[in-house]
TrEMBL record, chain A:
Organism of origin: Sporolactobacillus shoreae
Name of the protein in its database record: YwgA family protein
Taxonomy, superkingdom: Bacteria
Lineage of origin: Bacteria, Bacillati, Bacillota, Bacilli, Bacillales
Automatic annotation (TrEMBL), chain B:
Name of the protein: HD domain-containing protein
Chain ranges of the HD domain: 60-176
SMART domains documented for this protein: HDc (SM00471)
A Gene Ontology BP annotation from the UniProt entry: dGTP catabolic process
């Protein structure tokens, strides 16, 4: 009934706590591009791929009491932290068979900053557009990413893809 | 060479929202005349909403012209203040005009069932072997790509992107007013000209003079009201649910080798997941409605029934789902099956996240760009922090989940059927 919601809740459970809506948006996008079954529609916005659908799903999960949201006022604005509630445990328990187990990848993504995940997801976004040089496009968009960061993001993407390939093989 | 040549005489379209839409550039006039753009006359702006609000028959053609007209007028205002780089004008106008050109019939349902993506088709139409591409390429070989980048929000000049696509953009301003006009509702209105007058380009974004905050509040209220009263109307959603189920059923029948009396030739490539641009451009709502009409005579009982429901507006009823009822579907599905009603096609949950557009949420820093007010001292403040009205709307979460089902079908089951009693209890009917 709410399979897509359950997958989001499961990712949050696997990460423990996800610090920030932006981070969660980028994590789900990255997992989607890695071929995991997330069906949210993403559009490009000023800070990389973003899904309004996912924003609403988060609200719905919070309203049902399946997620706990905690706003932290920081110097650069509010960051919302998410974790699964007890009711949320019960909720995802109904969907065990459809939930992707990507704990290692989720932990790895969750350990990065939202800004770095913006870079990674933006590169992945432009990689999918034929004839586009993703690295050049990122530089032209005038976001504060250095060549060094772009290089690190490229290595990171390659690692994720290798990890994804291993998961497919083990299945 | 078309380039930026002016027409000998200005052309105008009479329009119920903007009174007149003015076309002075040959390039714009030629784009409007292309078959790909004319196709938008045959795609309704609001999909199945006409089954709820009978006036909602307006097309994406009128909306696209409206977005162009708003962009044109806003640019004129910016130019008059010296706030605009005129070399970006024609690019912005083309992007405004073409921003929805990739929409297909009942896009939302089609995308859900067939995995198509209207934004990708917009890119393909602009960059592919089409009349639109040929017209745009007369400006310069890279001009179609620039137009596609603006629409895809990846163009380097973010101010141009903001004009077409941001929290207060030409697209939203037009569709809110146009949809309110054609549905006949009275709550979608706001003072658009006042908003234009308080728009200020600051760096790569458009912000609003704080003195115009109340006009912006009205606009946000309009979005809020239109979402709950029009876009997420439960009857419209019911029609959307049935439409989606028809597509699911037809796809499955085709893939199982079902012998249609009326073979859906125009949809074959869609069913087979290999739809070309040419095939896509031949699809419009007339074609789809034709199949729905003739499928009412098909042998398959489910397809026949769903099409009859859609064509004759015998829609599903709904019940509000609470948290405690979220798991009732297993029992309900079992009872439906026992009663001979396939739950795969006759039980469906629809959530607010299935129709997410047009919520204003300021979000976190750098999650997405919020609406910014420019204060008298030049500082920028996010709207919901200054406006009690907007703060109230954005602070209070409202979401919704409904379970749709064919009440008439359930009630027509024999009274002595145990499953009927269980279904009635579970659905509270």
């Amino acid at each position: 009934m709410l399979e897509d919601h359950a997958k989001i809740a499961a990712i949050i459970k696997q990460a423990g706590v996800i610090a920030g809506r932006k981070k969660l948006q980028k994590m789900i996008y990255i997992l989607q591009t890695m071929g995991f079954p997330f069906h949210e529609t993403f559009h490009f916005n000023f800070f990389g791929p973003h899904s309004d659908e996912l924003t609403m799903q988060l609200e719905e999960l919070c309203n049902f009491g399946f997620l706990l949201e905690h706003p932290d006022e920081e110097s650069d604005g509010i960051t919302y932290r998410y974790r699964l509630s007890e009711a949320g445990e019960g909720f995802i328990g109904h969907y065990k068979e459809i939930l992707p187990d990507v704990r290692n990848m989720t932990e790895k993504l969750s350990g990065e900053s939202a800004s770095f995940l913006e870079l990674v997801s933006t590169l992945l976004y432009f990689d999918q557009i034929p004839g586009e040089s993703a690295n050049e496009k990122v530089r032209a968009l005038d976001r504060p990413f250095s060549d060094k960061e772009i290089g690190r993001a490229r290595v990171y993407i390659a690692d994720l893809q290798a990890e994804r390939a291993d998961l497919s093989f083990s299945k | 060479m078309t380039g930026f040549e002016k027409l000998n005489e200005e052309k105008v379209f009479k329009d119920p929202v903007h009174r007149y839409i003015h076309v002075r550039d040959r390039l714009i006039w030629e784009l409007i005349g292309t078959p790909e753009f004319q196709r938008l006359r045959r795609i309704r702006q609001l999909g199945t909403t006409f089954l709820t609000f009978h006036g909602a028959e307006h097309s994406r053609f009128g909306h696209s012209l409206g977005v162009y007209e708003i962009a044109r007028r806003v640019i004129d205002i910016f130019k008059s203040r010296g706030d605009w780089d005129d070399s970006e004008t024609m690019l912005s106008l083309c992007a405004a005009l073409l921003h929805d050109v990739g929409h297909g019939p009942f896009s939302h349902s089609f995308e859900k069932v067939f995995g198509t993506n209207h934004e990708q088709f917009t890119q393909k139409i602009i960059l592919g072997d089409t009349e639109i591409h040929r017209v745009l390429a007369q400006v310069s070989p890279d001009f179609p790509k620039k137009v596609a980048d603006v629409i895809g929000k990846t163009y380097e000049n973010r101010l141009v992107v903001s004009l077409i696509s941001s929290q207060i953009d030409a697209d939203r301003m037009d569709y809110l007013l146009r949809d309110a006009y054609f549905t006949g509702v009275s709550y979608g209105h706001f003072d658009m000209e006042r908003i234009w007058r308080v728009m200020r380009p600051v760096g790569d974004q458009i912000v609003f003079k704080s003195s115009g905050m109340h006009a912006v509040e009205d606009y946000i209220m309009s979005r809020y009201q239109m979402y709950w009263q029009v876009y997420f109307h439960p009857v419209t959603r019911s029609a959307e649910v049935i439409l989606t189920q028809i597509l699911h059923r037809a796809k499955r029948l085709y893939n199982e080798g079902f012998s249609f009396k009326n073979v859906p030739l125009q949809m074959v490539s869609l069913f087979e997941g290999k739809m070309s641009l040419k095939d896509y451009l031949r699809l419009d709502e007339s074609v789809i409605m034709y199949y729905f009409q003739v499928w009412q005579d098909e042998e398959d009982e489910i397809l026949r029934d769903l099409c009859s429901r859609f064509m004759n507006r015998r829609l599903f009823k709904y019940m509000q789902l609470s948290k405690d009822q979220l798991y009732a579907d297993e029992e309900l599905s079992g009872a439906f099956r026992e009663a001979g009603i396939d739950p795969e096609y006759y039980l469906e949950v629809d959530s607010s996240s299935d129709c997410p557009y047009d919520f204003y949420r300021p979000g976190e820093e750098e999650e997405r760009r919020p609406i910014q007010l420019k204060m008298p001292d030049g500082s920028l403040h996010e709207l919901s922090r200054e406006s009690d009205v907007v703060g109230a709307i954005t602070g209070k979460r409202r979401t919704d989940h409904k379970l749709y089902f064919p009440k008439d079908m359930v009630l027509s089951l024999p009274d002595d059927l145990p499953a009927k009693k269980r279904i009635i209890e579970l659905l509270h009917i």
